[in-house]
Amino acid sequence: MEWQRRVPPIRGLMALRAVSEAGTFTGAARYLGWNQPNVSKHLQALETALDAKLLHREHSGNKLTEAGERVLEHATAITDSYAALVRELERMRAAETGRLRIAASLTIGDHWLPQVLMQFGEMHPHIAVESRVLYGREGLRQAAQGLADVALVEGDPGESGLTAQKVGEDMLMVACGQDHPWAAKGSLTLEEFTQGRYILRERGSGTRDTLDHYLEEANLPPMQPELEVGSNHAILQMLKNGEHLTVLSSLTLQDAQHSGFLVLLPVRGLNLKRAFWAVRAPQARSLPAADTFIDFLRNNPPNQELTPATGPTETAQPT
């Protein structure tokens, strides 16, 4: 770039544009919030800097010279660009401040959100986050009613009418205790999967709704669990007696598998991967802090370090 030694006369460019749009110096002063002598002073300074007559003052009005017409084109572009710069910087400042209300489903809220909030708070200390963990799809309802700015939900948010962005994923996994008769199988066939004795989450939970949806898509009958329990922790404890299987999120199963009492059993021919979605409330669609939070989620997906049991034909083939 060829740098000019003279300071760009931005106020003169503003004065020229304002006079052109208002038609008079009085109107231009009103547009700019200046007094009329200042409009004249900055316009004269612009003419001096450019060594060109830009405006003819006539009784019938002010008329731009040929040079003035050309300068006005650049003045419009420069002042528009500066206004856009100011708006962008204001948005950047807003993206690092404010208050954000988050509603999360149980699996996300218990197993991913705590780590996210700790890291997010360190990187964006001026955004105050208020989070709550809710049952099933309650977060969607709260977002729709304006009670939460962003809802984090498992599986397809469906026809909620809200703006949704994918921010991560997990996988539903079949698991059993190490004393279960199938613990050494390494994997299950579809027939075995449908014939097992299960303890599952209750209907209406995000995990159960996702499981029922996948079974329907795979033309498999709905599962008939022997027990339905509203607590992931309680289900994991009940698996220790070795009699039942469960289907839970890979995030829920991490700690239990690492502790050594849990075995994972992939199902051959069935893909149980699901997406996590950030759903914006209508009032949060232009909320800069929400943009910052959702971008952070997408750059910090859930950590899933699971090792399915080794054994014959352990690789699940997606449907």
From TrEMBL:
Coiled coil stretches, renumbered: none
Signal peptide positions (record): none
Region (Disordered) location: 300-319
HTH lysR-type domain sequence ranges: 8-65
Protein name, as recorded: LysR family transcriptional regulator
Keywords for the protein's UniProt record, in alphabetical order: DNA-binding, Transcription, Transcription regulation
Pfam family, one: HTH_1
UniProt KW Transcription keyword: yes
Family affiliation: Belongs to the LysR transcriptional regulatory family.
Keyword Transcription regulation: yes
InterPro entries: LysR_HTH_N, LysR_subst-bd, WH-like_DNA-bd_sf, WH_DNA-bd_sf
UniProt xrefs under PANTHER family: HTH-TYPE TRANSCRIPTIONAL REGULATOR, HTH-TYPE TRANSCRIPTIONAL REGULATOR GLTR
Top-rank taxon, per record: Bacteria
Gene3D superfamilies referenced in this protein's UniProt entry, alphabetically: 3.40.190.290, Winged helix-like DNA-binding domain superfamily/Winged helix DNA-binding domain
